[in-house]
Records
---
Amino acid sequence: MKTHLSGKFTFVIHCGILYFVLFGNIDAQILTPEQRAEAQRQLQIMSPEEIDRKIRELGMTREEAERRAKENGIDLESYLRGQYPTATASSGISPILESGPIAGPTVGSTKVIETITKKKLPTSRGLPYFGYDVFLTTPAAFEPTAVGPVDPEYIIGPEDVLRVSIWGQVEQQNELTVDKEGRIFIPTTGPVVVSGLTIDEVQKKLVKQLARSFQGLVASPPTVWLDVTLSKIRPKRIFIMGEVENPGGYTVNSYSNVFNSLFAVGGPTVNGSLREVRLIRGNKIIARIDLYLYLTGAEKNNDLRVQNNDIIFIPVRKNTIYIKGEVRRPGVYELLPGENLKKLIEYAGGLLPTTYYERAQIDRIIPPKERMKNELERRYIDINYRDIVSNNADYPLADGDVVTFYSVLDEVKNYVMISGSVYKPGTYQLTPNMRLLDLIQLADSLRPETYYLRGELTRVLEDNTTQISIPFDLKSLLEGDKKQNFILQPKDRVVIHSINISKIPDEFVEIFGSVKKPGRYPLTKNMTLVDVLMQAGGFTENAERTQARIARIDPTTTDDTLAYILYADLPDLLDTTTITDYAFFENFRKTDFKLQHRDQIFIRSNPNFQIQQLVTVTGEVKYPGQYALRTYNDYLSDLIKRAGGPTSAAYLRGGKLTRHNERVNIDFQEAVDAPKSSKDLILHAGDLIEIPKKPNTVRMTGEVNNPGLLSFSKGDDLWDYIDRAGGLTDSADYIILFHPNGNAEQFSAGWFGGNPEVYDGSTIVVTKVPPPLPEKEGERVGNIVRDIFAIMASALTVIVLARQL
């Protein structure tokens, strides 16, 4: 019965928490920071299934519950996923709203968040600061977990959350928070003090306490079992001070150590020391932590867990040393007292194989105590690192030193090279007393196409810049001539030539004109004209197949001749599409025209070959369509006749001939009436002939009182149609008559302007008088002056006449 009441009591508490979270903003009642913190703490105790069940029992959907909780500053969705949202995406920390001596960000939440990238790390002298880049990103997976297995010696304290599970004859599970007095409250037995005990000790104590209510716990054999686990570890409050990005108070979980804590808050700035991180507890420095031990993997004996009210202090870095050049990890390092050059090289990952040990250089600022009057404050110091290593010594460094290790020279001397007509050309090691024949044998001897009359040896003199060429007789060398078998020196280069040096490279012929694949073709031995014609795919259909023209150059000529033009007859065999008489072909090939380097072959076009020349006729003919011209002198009248002549509705006078998108003005009626005369027209390929129907109208436009289409009346003249259109307007200027054959005439609007007969389909356009041009300022003044003088002259005339009377 008590167990049932306890479970019901827990359910009522959780329902009250959810009701407070989801409905706390009704009537503008927003949760206070303290209330929000308490709600978050209680929600972390509940499982996602319990939260989801209680939402349904409150009569809400998950979406509505998440929205209501968000209005109160609670990320309910994260709790429903089993995550505890305490970190923000921008900094990895969030304000602590719980009551306590420290108000600050929280570190070490259990929420799985993405990696957070912080600002770019500064450099000094172009070198990165060693170790600080570790703190540039904050992966949440690195943070210590707030739940899970704990050490057997973990001591329970206030704010720890215990999960007490009972099963067997009785089943019960409760999440119990340790209060400030170190107690948990068990509904069946009351408060139990657990602070200061381990998990095993708490379990034994609870078995003893609950045995009064559940005798099966101590029965033999037992019928009821009890298990105690740590559901949530209590947080700890610490201070992180000194050279950090955000100094202040923070809350971390109980498993956090110094490195975790620094990592989550962004770590020290580059002005802060990584070598002497101080952990202060009870006003005493209990540890000086060297983070280089973490970063270099040397040891981890300083992995100290923080306690409540601990202070992590980052002092200013004191000893900054730069190292660059031939080291594996150039950068800016911090050295402790007693650490010198060898330790610096160790931190920098060691020297590269290319390092020049005989000389390293230190750029040093002279320490103030060592400075002398009238001397510069900086100096360069050259050291021999090989001597330091040989003597098992070290070299002291000072704050601000810049150490540079240089590279060995790229130059290699103990080699010789061979190239050309050998099987294995390349670079070979120069051995003592090595001779030319030795090198040829190392290159796996000579190739068959070797040129034996001459080889070349190029040698670099002692000044390392001047080169000389030494020829040798390869044939004599192979026959045992010791004078040709030179002793080789460093960097000698031997070239064995091929017989191709005596040949013209890439010899070719070219073929142009009426062949299927004109272009350049390689010249082969005994290549003939027929051979290149075959390679070019043979003739095109318009080729002149009886003769080829060849342009040939003669490099030995001494006159002004640029090329000799040769002609070669082509065999009839090439006119057939299939070669059947192979004997004839081979016999002809033996006597065929042989080609030379740079011959140019031209296959001309047949001047009598032409493809069909088409014209198109449309409209009112009996057989419209495309027609091929029979000769170059086919006339328009011929084509109209071949198309069956005009239909009864055809209007030949309005026919239109278009050539290259332009109209050719011709009267089709006159061409048909006088064929092959000056009135007719010779056709060209592509001409378009259009014969319309009789329009029976005349179009009147422009400055007439009634423009539009007028019915055609045979015999009427120009002014008849103007009168039928209502006459001219006052602004009429001149008249243009467009005939149906495309021609045009211009007439004045006066009585003597002309009055021709108008044909069917014509267009009459009456233009408008243009407005007068505006007077210029000078012209207006001149007109005024002229008028004044005219008036004065008139007045003087009147006066003179009056006196004579």
---
Amino acid sequence: MVAKFRFERCDAREGQGPRVADIERRMRMLHRPMDGDNTVVVIEHKLDVIAEADWIIGAGPESGDAKGRIVAQDSPESLVKHRAGCILRKCSSIFLSRTEPDRRFKTTRLDLGQHWMERPRAHRLRHREPAPTWTCWSSAWILRSTLTALPESEFLSGVGSRPTTSTRRLLLLPEGSDMKAKSTDLQPRAIGSLALARRAAVRVAVSYVALVGAWILLQNGIPMSLFIAEADPLSWSQLFVGWFFIISTGWLLFLLMNRGLTLIAEGQEALRLRDRAIESSTNAMIIVEYRRPNLPIISVNPAFERITGYSSAEALGRNPSFLEAAGVDQPELDAVRLAVKEQRSCHVVLRSFRKDGTLYWNDLQLAPVRDDHGLVTHYVAVLNDITETRKYQEELARRANYDTLTGLPNRNLLADRAERAIVRAKRYGHGMVMTFIDLDNFRVINDSLGHAVGDNILRLVGERLACCLREVDTVAHVGGDEFVLVFGEQDSERAIYAELQRIMNVFVLPFELGEREFFVTASVGIATYPMDADKVETLLQHAEIAMYRAKDAGRNTFQFFKAEMTASVHERLALESWMRRAVQRGELVLHYQPQVDLRTNRMFGAEVLVRWQHPKLGLISPEKFIPLAEQTGLIVSIGEWVLRTACAQNRAWQDAGLPPISVAVNISARQFRERNLVAVVAHIVKESGLDPRYVELEVTESVIMQNVDEVVKVLQRLKSLGLTLSIDDFGTGYSSLSYLKRFPVDRLKIDRSFVRDVASDPDGAAITRAVINLGHDLNLRVIAEGVETKEQLDFLNAHQCDERQGYLFSRPLPAQEFEALLRQGETPTE
């Protein structure tokens, strides 16, 4: 069958939209059989055009018989709205989707085939009409297998004044300008289906679109020039270029997408890491909404709940001020408010309350959070509980200013308060008194009874002294057994004496420790402002000098500073400095005083006495430097030198063939308290090569009566070395007979104070007699020292005293003179 096209033009008035009644036309088609039959069948089709907005949709009838009668006809409006609208919307949505091109074409082909097979003669036309004048046009449909298209010239003449169609984009329908003047064979099963009739062209178009990437041009539809039945297949070069384009484009898209996904993943991981870090932080973190008036909390971390005791539910939405310590004046809060007002960061330390009401120190760091435009949107606050650190700092400050033993101010805080007292005294014209207190013989208690007992006594002394003070006064523990008191606002000498009397009364009553009582006395030195000095350091020095003068005056008293005391102190300091170098310089020498047996009248030993031969000052008396050596601790090194020198000298005399004698060396209280005393003595004796039985150690009664149990152990260890032990100055230490029998000693030595008055003082004679009898009863030998007269000697002989020593027989002699006396083999007499 040959079909001819007939186009009729329909114009619309300007300014008016097209209507169905205005554009209804008739289209006649001449049908001539192909087998030579000249019968012409005219079928008249009615074409209805429906206008929807600016889209023109045309539709033809379904079928007609050979006589030209219309067999069936759908409602035009229903046909257009249902079938044409459905296909156009569905196909358009598929091609404008973001799915793969192959999938788009496949879906479209299936949908088109389905609708065309159901209505093989249905035809929908859709195009954009930009001009107010538009043309509706139709086409004839084949009933058999051959379609001959009109030449282009005839086709264009049939179009007439219709707007140019060469630039149009139609959906799945060919433009008239693309049709060629030749026949196209169609598959019998594809009759009425343009999509299937052009399957070869569609395959070529799909390949082009898929391989060359022409889907980029599909936003406004597919150019129908692609759907040409005679389109040439793509060449290998086009396929290669297409595949290369697809692969490179896909790879580039993959890289870009992978990079984008990687960046997104990294960003998300960074956010998750930041969240985990905030959650794991030991510091409390708060985020506050700055743009809202009440600055509510919008986020807290677990550390906030742990530090403050408030849960997140209790904190969210509240102003952070509920964490402030109510009723506590904190100027730091003003700094926080000012920083928030000025939109800047700040760092302060605040006192805050936990939920349970406990106070803690809060190290707060506050910083604004800004958006991309630099505007503050939030504030982040970091809270650090520094309570323990603060306590540690306070403890360090306390230790820097307070004595750890007594809790009293130390020397550092004393200087500060004394300086303030002087400033007040200058301002108001008052006086100020500084007193230096040193406990008498406290070292004996501390060393004999242990440091624990001594420390307790120091605490009790500090408590009593603190009770004597007024608000303007200060008491400090400056070390050891020394205390300093500062009395401010002193206007008269009577007031000063009243204060001193209160101090001395502190030591009248005993100090009780458990069931034991201790009597402690003190020596006090006084310096006054402005009479003695106007500086704290100088006042303290002068008060200490006066304290030493009080000790020299007999202890348990007080002394005011005098200018002449300074010279004595300077002499004392110089003496101490010289004494520290006396041993190394060989300035110390030993003198030996003979000891005589009263029964045999022969010399059996000698007491060793140390002397200091100063190169400028000459011979210095032991009474002058021995107490100083005791106080400074130099007596330990001096005592070791004395024992070593005496043992070596005695060994030398015996090696020289002189009669063997024993040398008696005094052990000071400080030496006796040394833990290595026994080891030092054993080493010295062994080093000298002297037989231990020719070495005698003298220990004073006051030493052995302190911590008796420990003293007994030390004496037993010394005795085990083979030494002779004696108690020096017996009768002056109030020793108990129950203790005396426990001491492993060999000799009692009667103090010279008793021997001196035996001829004139009945009490002295009675004590001497009692000591002699006590010694004999305990199987101890008794020696009397300080025998200087014939009357004393006669008394001792009458009461059977075993041994004697004193100036009546010989004064202490240097080693050479004593050696000469020893060589004579005679009893020394004077």
---
Amino acid sequence: MPAGKFIKNKNIQWNAKWIWEHGIQDRTFSYVCFRKKFDIEKVPPLAVLYITANNNYHAFLNGKRIGTGPAFSQSRFKRFESYNTGALLKEGVNCLSVIVHHYDENDSVNPEYKGLLCQIDIHGKTVCVSDSTWKTFSCRAYHQEPRVKMGYTFWPEFFDARSYPHGWTECDFNDDLWQSAVPVKKAFDEFWQCEQSQARVFPWINLISSELEPLKYTRRIPVEIITEGEVIEKMQPSSHDTAIRMSIEQILPLEKASIQNSKALLNNTAPVVVCGSDLREKTETFDGIRDATLILDFGRIINARLGFRISSQSGAMIDIGYSNRLEGKRIVPYVSCQTPMADQYTASEGEQTWQGFHWRQFRYIQLTFRNSSGGIKIHELWAEQVEYPFILKGGFECNDSLLNCAVNAARFSTELNVVDHTMDNATRERRYHVGDCTAHLWSIWSFFGNCGIVERYLRHAEETRQICGGYERAAGLRGVVIDSDWEFPSVIYEHYMLYGNKELLEEMWPGLELLARFIESCIEKDGTIISVPYLQYYDWADVRRNKHNFLLNAYAAHALQNICMIFRELNIDKSLNRRLEIVEVLRQALREKWYDSSRGVFLDNPYDAGEENHISEHSNSYAIYSGIASHEQIVSICNMYEKHPGIFAEANAGWKCFPLALLKAGRVDLFIRWAYSHFGKWFDSGIDTVAECWSMYGETTPGHWRTRNSRAQAQAAGVVGLPFALLTELCGIQVLEPGCRIMRFAPNPGGLKSFKGILPIKDGACSLTYRRDGKKQHIDIKVPDIVNSIVIDLPSYSSNDLITIHGKKTEHDEMHLMPYGQQVHRLRISGKKSLAIVLTDNK
């Protein structure tokens, strides 16, 4: 477990140099060890290590692991960590050691040039810096050129302990044969005969202190042994086909291999002894080499580094397969050619300890022991779980068990896909897609409020913005994507409404101005958008995004509208009225040109041959959610969905607009029907997360929704629709003034008998508890002190209903009759003179 104490410190004078190993500047995919001895006379209470690297590091001081990093970031805005290492120092000679894994400066996950940068400061004086006095060693224990990669996540680790410099993090290790480090040089371009500009990949243009809270580390052990058996080797074990081999090997009952005392793995109380079949078996009975295998269950899906302490003969191998789910009594590590979920460990002689360099996402592991006829003794086995330190502050529960399961699945999936950054999903795509990761925020707000990862995401996304005003598809992935990223302004404004951070708006507005200009440049003479100069790739949508499509125009209108609202808050009047006119022209065109009055629905591409009759849940729900549809159109869409749901191309569970739209329309009955159709089969099969599914239109081919085994079982972008919709539309907890000074409570129970929602806001949380007893409604509302006015909006209020605030019954103060028959009641509660309460009866 990391022993360094993570701290935040932005004030640093860098004296260190970026360094790398000598003479192999052009090699990609390297694990490089660095170490430096230094003296101190007296151990101080505070000794701060500042460190970053490309791409990932583990840092040690006197043999103790300090920490792991750096926090994932856009290459031009490199994050560094700060640790208080005072407790790990000793008087006299100390040794700072770092192992760095560099992928490839052209890698699609996070393209960066290689290097290490670190220094230790004590009382303002630098006592250790990365420079040419450091010793380096290319760690050949890690296979240097893997032929397989785990999708857009990480590479399998093929580790050979026989080549590992054991003890290299300790002071007394002999590093005389190690080479001296060299300053990192810019790459030389042979064609242009000059040093290349490193603006795209050089990470030290901007060095920024990590905004992260310290990650949470927990050691887990297996809770159950699923299978113990043996497999027959079909070919010589290698590091190039580990996942495939483990997936096709049939697991047989133990016969010639053996596993003794396997239950000890569930508590690490005694060694487990594993042996393969006898290599000297007689020819007449020999039918292949038998290798022992175990499948272990850690109880839930976790993000963790597997580790173990074993005793073994040299050359024994352990194949390690990972999976989030079982297929019968086995797992399939080879999910697809893009997702081979397996590592391999080759043992040295004697007792040894290993833990993976990178964390994996898994619930189940399979260990297959090769070359083990001499026996392998497992002393300990664990998984070091790594989590973002979320604190649960909000949520939703009701009398419907499936909705409760869906909410819990949403929370769990969110937690699994946020570590040092928000990810599309942690199993196969740890990219930082701006559009996909925008979806995380709705779920994070619902459960955890304004934790540090939210504003880190907003700033991180802004750092990916291109000069044209669009965003990179992901941090570290070149190219601009359009449609999904146009939702970004809406989450900035929603965040501002919830938490009132005007400084963040001021930080974001220059980039939003560029985005607004870009959108305007795409608008044709008729006031609509036909095409855009960059990629459209909203792969959640079963909608073609070429020519005159509804969603692209609707995204543009919604983005411009939110930008205008942000600029109004900042009193930026430039072009405001003109842009609001553009928004209204777009919205009016969508209402008139894309609406099929004969069927009462919006069409996706009414002017494109072959697509003119395509109707989707996406376009129709977005029309309701974003305020494009008129009241009559909303009623018509809901009626068509109720009577003829089959005419709509189906949205997946991650499409937040559909549940929001149904609840905004007051159709709780349709919302519950939607929830059962989307989540019912998952939960019936025992899945407790929201699985990834998407449309083949996202692959630019005609298609349909699908979830295949190569997709993730926990997809963060697939959880956003439900919790926020339940809190803001079913519970009706809504912000009327930025920073939550004025709140609205408009419960919409439909057929539900009871529910409770808690929405985290600035300086606390607002909650609404609803219970129906016959014809009587009981509503209890709680708000933090920051709220000074609340509006209670009930569609069917009677004198029998009981409304309490913090458990205290309200009393009528006065009543006003408004036009069209609405009654507005002023309420009061004893002991709360500062809280203004208004009840509106909207029969």
---
Amino acid sequence: MALLHWKATLASPPLQMSSWQENTRPCNWSGIMCTAIRHGRGMPWVVTNISLPGAGIRGQLGELNFSALPFLAYIDLQNNSLHGVLPASISSLSSLSYLDLSFNHLKGKIPFEFGGLQSLMQLGLSSNRLTGHIPASLGNLTMLNYLVIHQNMVSGPIPKEIGNLVNLQGLQLSNNPLTGMIPKTLGNLTQLNDLYLYGNQLSGPIPQELGRLVRLQSLQLQSNDFSGPIPISITNLTKMNTLFLFENQITGSIPPEIGNLTMLNELSLYTNQITGPIPRELGNLAMLNELWLDRNQITGSIPPELGNLTMLNDLYLYTNQITGPIPLELGNLLNLWILDLFDNQISGSIPNSLGNITKLVELHLPQNQITGSIPKEIGNLMNLEYLGLYQNQITGSMPKTLGRLQSIQDMQIFDNKLSGTLPQEFGDLISLVRLGLSRNSLSGPLPANICSGDRFQYLDVSFNMFNGPIPSSLKTCTSLVRIDIRSNKLTGDISRHFGVYPQLTKMRLASNRLSGHISPNIGACTQLTVLNLAQNMITGSIPPFLSKLSNLVYLSLDYNHLTGEIPPEICTLNNLYSLNLSSNQLFGSIPTQIEKLSNLGYLDISGNRLSGLIPEELGACMKLQSLKINNNNFSGNLPAAIGNLAALQIMLDVSNNNLSGVLPQQLGKLEMLEYLNLSHNQFSGSIPSSFASIVSLSTLDVSYNDLEGPVPTARLLQNASASWFLPNKGLCGNFSGMPPCYSTPIAAHKKGKILGFLLPIVLVMGFVIVAAIVVIIILTRKKRRQQKTLMISTSLEQGDMAKSTRHNSKTGSWLL
């Protein structure tokens, strides 16, 4: 038999099929129904119904021989694990009126042959993996009441032939990639109660013809690409209780005629491009439970008539351009759970009447222009779980009545102009999870029992004027996830006032008056990603146990009184991105293990007493964008490996050290660098010509060194100040206040090469000439002496002769 054969093909037939045995009648099997039909002279019993929803059947429907079951009228196999294609053989069942195969794993196309099922009244194929187009042949199923192809992968347009299904009461084609426009022929489906086309890629205008669907109760066209205005004809659908048009490209204004839809329970138009004001006629929708108009471009004020919607649970108007005050009449919405007016241009004060809405769970008024004080009546909202008033211009003090909000979990009032003290009653908020009061002008002490419940996770009171000690309850507040008390005047010893917080991820205590040592408790907060203790009065050394914070990304200990060396253990923090130890009293050298900080983007150790050589290993921190090691006592050369830091963009500052030697040519590889400060060192030689390759450079300070030669030309240094280069030994350049260079760098380079070649020759030739002159002089003098000697000798001889001949003469010619 066909049913037993099908069972045999299934994987582990379910218990519900255990009664399907060869020796029993099918009419007695679980899930099978039979009907006696007249056939000839007898009335045999034949199988007409298969109903096994959610039975856990795993197999292929194509293995069932439908031609052997010609009288089947009802098949319900939804919510099983059927797979394979949808068999076209089902079309042989001419008596079939009900077919539901939803929530299976069927794939392939919807067979064209299904258009022959002339008796079919309900076709359910939702939540499968069907593909292809909706066959136009389905338009032949004129008896059909429900067509459900929701949640598949069916594509293409909606066939206009669907408009032939004049008996259709439910049409669900939602959550498919259908394209094209809604066929105008759907306006023929005058018996339709529900039209679900949401979650497709349908486009074009919403057709006016839908206004003929006078029985329609639910119209859901959301999450498509519909454009154009809301058709006025839709406002004829007076039986409608649900209208969802959200997440489209709808333009124009909301038709005032929507106020005629008095049966409407849900109106959702959010995330469109709707303009214009909110029609006051919406106040006629007395049955409305949900009104969602958020994320549009709605202007004008909130009409007071919305106060007539006394059944309203949710009112979402956020992210529009609404102006004017909050109407007092909204205080009449006694059934309201959520009021969201976030991100508008609402002005005026918070009306006291909102304190009447005692069922309110969420009140969102942030990012507006609200002024005035927080009304004490807000303390009446005993069911309130969220209060958002941040980024307004609210003044005055925090009312004590807020301490009565026993259900409050999240209170965000940051970025306002609040003053005064934080009431001690805030310590009674036992359900509080998040408290955000930053960027106000609040003062005085924080309530000692601010963490009175065991759920408190987020505390942000930064940028106020709070003073006094750290609240004692924080030490045992082990539920903390984030704490931010930056920029106050809080005092206390951090080694005694903070405990171990297993879930803490961010700890920002900077810019207070905290003292003491860094506690081992902080080292036990192993989930920390941000630790900011900067600008306090913390003493002692940087403890090696900080290396236990393996998730740490930001570590700021700058502007304290820390001493000692930088512990090499800190270099095991592989996730560290920003390390700021500047303006302390640290000494010693930079640990060579710094090369392990492969994710380091910002390093600032300036303003300490660090000394020794800058390690070559620093060049291994390839993600560095900013490097500040200025105002220390480093000596030796600037490592050429610094030129490997290709990501260095924001700053390289090594000024005010004792560095010497020539500047490495490799610095020219830092093409993204914007700020380079080498001043107040003892660098010598010339500025490398490779500096001209640093095309992003806007500041180059090499003043107070022993540099000479021309300053490399770079486009961004054309307006440079001479103070960046002077004083030095002999720099020159085309900058105001600097001596000019008499030759271009290229000419000077060529001249230097020529001089280097000619100088030895000139020296040798000069030596030869000088030597020759010396030899000539010596020889000349020697010859003259010889001549003189000869003359003297001759004279003496002549004198003797004269003396002998004229003995008595008084003179001799030799004396002449």
